[in-house]
Amino acid sequence: MSNFPTIQEVEKFGFHFPYAKGWLTKQNVMAMDAALITTPNTTVPAALLQYISPDVIEILTAKRAASEILDEKKVGDWTTAFYQFPTEEYTGSTGPYSDYGDGPSSGVNDNWNNREQYIFQTTITYGDLEVARAAQAKMNLIAGKQRGAAEIIRTDANKFYLLGVAGRKIYGLLNEPNLPPDITPNVVDGAITWLEKLALANDSGTRAIYSDFVKLFSQLQVQSGALIDENSEMTLLVSPSRSATLSTATNFNVSTRQMILENYRNIKFETVPQLSSSTAGETIILMVKNFRGTSTADLGFGEKMRQGKLIPETSSFRQKFSASTYGTIMKMPFAYAVMQGV
Quick one: DSSP state of residue 5? Predict the structure, then answer.
């Protein structure tokens, strides 16, 4: 005999189930809530509730500024070991004319400079199962790894252009040994760095920063024998934090950047993260990219990127990518003025 009342018996207590035929009990091979055999659950697997975006977000790295500052130049190929280029300086003097004498002589002094080539490489590998699983997520793993190799080569090429290659006769724009000696900022009321100068009264701090730029430009004029002037096309290289400093306005709403542009109309500004320093004042460089129709420095390379053979294994593949660099080939160091400690 059942321990449960019938459907009709519970109606007098206000429970009405007009379409029910009877109770589902253990005897009906159906458990009641209080006697569940399985774990209580009211949801579905979380994986079925996920949305997988088809858009792949690339992780950003620091700005690769070298190729925006100078032009790249192909020199030989990856078999070239050294790059040599001549420089010439004109010599001589004049004297009073005489029908019977030749007077002083004129000539040219040639010097040869050389730079090594550095070849660097990276390799990608991918397996059959790895590729198949990525395909289930609608991702092209092989193309992604190829793009990764290209970006890694591009990142290192930028580093070599700016900093050279340690242990080799390959120098970068920021550590070229033939660059003229650095100069230091002006000291204003005990303030040296631009951040210290901004802490002064707003107007005087901005004027102090502008005076540092004028000092740097004056150094460039001295180095070039006044062949570079206010109308020359120049580029000011600054770190990200000092670039922001240039935009700080005075009480009259005039920034240092505006003051520079008003007096040096052909100047450009480039932000170079590698000019930053966590220990001391930072570095700025004022440069002329082209002087009398000739580039003052080039970014030299033998190969931008060279793709190696695709090597098949039993269930995977391997491929090498390589490139080469000479660093920055400095031709006219006098066209670069460096200030350290800003």
Answer: P
As a whole number of angstroms, the distance between CA 70 and CA 329 comes to 10
Tens-place pLDDT, residues 285-342: 999 999 988 899 999 999 998 999 999 999 999 999 999 999 999 999 999 999 999 9
| Contacts of 173 by beta carbon, 8 Å cutoff, 6+ apart | 66, 69, 70, 161, 162, 285, 297, 328, 330
pLDDT in tens, 275-285: 887 766 789 99
> HSE of 171 in the Cβ direction (CA atoms, 13 Å)?
16
> What are the Cα distances from residue 110, in Å, to 129, 291, 334?
62, 20, 18
CA distances in angstroms from 223 to 89, 218, 227, listed in the order given: 15, 9, 9
Q: Find, among 282, 256, 254, 286, the residue nearest to 270 by Cα.
A: 286
pTM, whole model, 2 decimals? 0.77
How many residues are listed for the chain in this entry? 342
Tokens encoding 199: 């802490």
Q: Which residues contact 130 (CB under 8 A, 6 or more apart)?
A: 141, 316
**Cβ proximity of 243 and 260 under 8 Å:** no
